[in-house]
Amino acid sequence: MFGNLGFGELMVILVIVLVLFGAKRIPEISASFGKGIREFKKNVNEVERSITEPEPRAEPRLPAGETTIRREAAEETRPEPKRLL
Protein backbone atom coordinates (compact mmCIF):
# COMPACT_ATOMS: atom_id res chain seq x y z
CA MET A 1 0.00 0.00 0.00
CA PHE A 2 2.07 2.92 1.29
CA GLY A 3 5.67 1.97 0.68
CA ASN A 4 6.57 -0.89 3.01
CA LEU A 5 3.58 -0.42 5.34
CA GLY A 6 1.17 -3.32 5.47
CA PHE A 7 -2.44 -3.43 6.61
CA GLY A 8 -1.52 -4.21 10.23
CA GLU A 9 0.87 -1.27 10.52
CA LEU A 10 -1.71 1.11 9.04
CA MET A 11 -4.33 -0.07 11.54
CA VAL A 12 -1.95 0.51 14.45
CA ILE A 13 -1.19 4.03 13.19
CA LEU A 14 -4.91 4.79 12.80
CA VAL A 15 -5.65 3.56 16.34
CA ILE A 16 -2.84 5.71 17.77
CA VAL A 17 -4.17 8.77 15.88
CA LEU A 18 -7.67 8.06 17.16
CA VAL A 19 -6.45 7.80 20.77
CA LEU A 20 -4.27 10.92 20.56
CA PHE A 21 -6.70 13.27 18.85
CA GLY A 22 -10.15 11.83 19.52
CA ALA A 23 -12.96 11.06 17.12
CA LYS A 24 -14.21 14.66 16.95
CA ARG A 25 -10.89 16.20 15.83
CA ILE A 26 -9.99 13.64 13.11
CA PRO A 27 -12.26 15.20 10.41
CA GLU A 28 -10.78 18.66 11.15
CA ILE A 29 -7.24 17.31 10.96
CA SER A 30 -7.88 15.43 7.71
CA ALA A 31 -9.56 18.48 6.14
CA SER A 32 -6.63 20.73 7.01
CA PHE A 33 -4.21 18.07 5.76
CA GLY A 34 -6.08 17.89 2.43
CA LYS A 35 -6.12 21.67 2.15
CA GLY A 36 -2.37 21.76 2.72
CA ILE A 37 -1.77 19.15 0.02
CA ARG A 38 -3.96 21.11 -2.42
CA GLU A 39 -2.01 24.33 -1.75
CA PHE A 40 1.29 22.50 -2.18
CA LYS A 41 0.22 21.02 -5.54
CA LYS A 42 -1.06 24.41 -6.73
CA ASN A 43 2.25 26.07 -5.88
CA VAL A 44 4.26 23.30 -7.56
CA ASN A 45 2.14 23.68 -10.72
CA GLU A 46 2.67 27.47 -10.71
CA VAL A 47 6.44 27.04 -10.43
CA GLU A 48 6.49 24.46 -13.23
CA ARG A 49 4.38 26.74 -15.43
CA SER A 50 6.62 29.74 -14.76
CA ILE A 51 9.69 27.68 -15.70
CA THR A 52 8.28 26.15 -18.89
CA GLU A 53 6.31 29.11 -20.30
CA PRO A 54 8.28 32.14 -21.48
CA GLU A 55 7.09 35.42 -20.07
CA PRO A 56 5.81 37.96 -22.59
CA ARG A 57 8.14 40.92 -23.00
CA ALA A 58 6.58 44.22 -22.08
CA GLU A 59 6.82 46.93 -24.71
CA PRO A 60 8.20 50.20 -23.32
CA ARG A 61 5.63 52.96 -23.32
CA LEU A 62 6.52 56.29 -24.87
CA PRO A 63 5.41 59.62 -23.42
CA ALA A 64 2.78 61.44 -25.47
CA GLY A 65 4.23 63.11 -28.57
CA GLU A 66 7.56 61.25 -28.60
CA THR A 67 8.52 58.73 -31.27
CA THR A 68 11.77 57.35 -29.80
CA ILE A 69 12.98 56.37 -26.35
CA ARG A 70 15.41 58.74 -24.70
CA ARG A 71 18.15 57.08 -22.72
CA GLU A 72 19.90 58.86 -19.95
CA ALA A 73 23.67 59.21 -19.97
CA ALA A 74 23.95 56.98 -16.89
CA GLU A 75 22.39 54.10 -18.80
CA GLU A 76 24.63 54.55 -21.83
CA THR A 77 27.95 54.64 -19.92
CA ARG A 78 27.93 51.79 -17.49
CA PRO A 79 30.86 51.37 -15.11
CA GLU A 80 33.09 48.39 -15.74
CA PRO A 81 32.38 45.52 -13.34
CA LYS A 82 34.87 44.87 -10.56
CA ARG A 83 37.17 41.95 -11.14
CA LEU A 84 37.37 39.30 -8.45
CA LEU A 85 40.95 38.21 -9.17
Structure description:
The chain has 85 residues and is mainly α. It has a domain of 31 residues. The chain is 54% helix and 0% strand. The two termini are 57 Å apart.
Primary descriptors:
single chain; 85 residues; mainly alpha; 3 helices; elongated
> How many strand units?
0
Give the SSE string: HHH
- Classify the beta-strand content into a percent band: under 5%
Instruction: Briefly note the structural class of the backbone.
Output: mainly alpha
CA distance, first residue to last residue: 57 Å
- What value does the average pLDDT take? 79
Uncertain runs are none
The largest pleated sheet is described as:
none
Task: Estimate the global geometry from the Cα principal axes.
Answer: elongated
Helical proportion? 40-55%
Rg, alpha carbons: 29 Å
Q: Which assembly state applies to the chains in this document?
A: single chain
Query: Helix tally?
Result: 3
Secondary structure elements and pairings:
Elements: H1 7-21, H2 26-52, H3 73-76
Concise synopsis of the structure shown:
This protein has 85 residues and is mostly helical. The chain has helices at 7-21, 26-52, 73-76.
